[in-house]
Amino acid sequence: MDAFICVTCGTQYPPSPEPPRACPICLxxxxxxxxxxxxxxxxxxxxxxxxxxxxxxxxxxxxxxTEPGFGIGQxxxxxxxxxxxCITLIDAETEAAVRAAGGVHTIAISHPHYYSAMVEWAxxxxxxxxxxxxxxxxxxxxxxxxxxxxxxxxxxxxxxxLHRLGGHFDGGTVCLxxxxxxxxxxxxxxxxxxxxxxxxxxxxxxxYPNLIPLPAAEIRRIxxxxxxxxxxxxxxxxxxxxxxxxxxxKVLRSADRYLRALGES
Length: 265
Prior knowledge:
The chain is α+β, with helices and mostly antiparallel strands. It has a single domain (2-261), classed as Ribonuclease Z/Hydroxyacylglutathione hydrolase-like (Metallo-beta-lactamase, Chain A, 4-Layer Sandwich), CATH 3.60.15.10. Helices cover 22% and strands 31% of the residues. It has helices at residues 24-27, 43-49, 92-100, 118-125, 180-183, 216-227, 247-261; strands at residues 2-6, 12-16, 40-41, 51-58, 61-67, 75-79, 82-84, 106-108, 128-132, 146-149, 153-157, 160-164, 173-177, 186-190, 194-195, 202-203, 205-207, 212-213, 233-236, 242-243. Helix 6 packs antiparallel against helix 7. The radius of gyration is 18 Å and the shape is globular.
């Protein structure tokens, strides 16, 4: 049986004789059903027309993204034994490259839009998957490898920490890599903290494709959590989405700009 994959968001579902009737991830108001309606593919079909680009972004940090773009189009990051966020396509070439870079013992994901083929990746690389328990209901392919953590912070060791910021999803998570940016710290943010086109700024939204903002109280809470963290660089969810320096101050001033736009001081 095939494990069907939603073409619009890249989420993989449990093996079944027929595709699911719909993709709940896309039916959620933060996402959307593709303009051509609900469409499905499989990993074998995906591998026939796509490949993964694997680049060193800075010493100790690899980016892994699918070309041409598939689903939401995010790229994953590999640091130490951690795969941060996930993409749908995994093939023999990608598996070999990740193993050569030290392998993966843990996959941690910022939010449900990037759960993608996390179970497939975990099985291939013999890893666990760490997700915040607040987003448990959005797991479309349950598996014993999926573990749910709770609270606001989880220390993974090796200078890596998960921090729940919420916002985009209740369990929205960022990863603080203390060794990143030459030891000044890097925030791996997915789009919980969204690096925008002017990369001196970031934004925070409930839905990006549907342009639904977050309320002021939530932005103030997120700002307070960010203020507790030390980092100089932000790596967002896509290749160009990098805030290269002085990122903490830029993210904080971005939150202040957002609040002013809502008429809040």
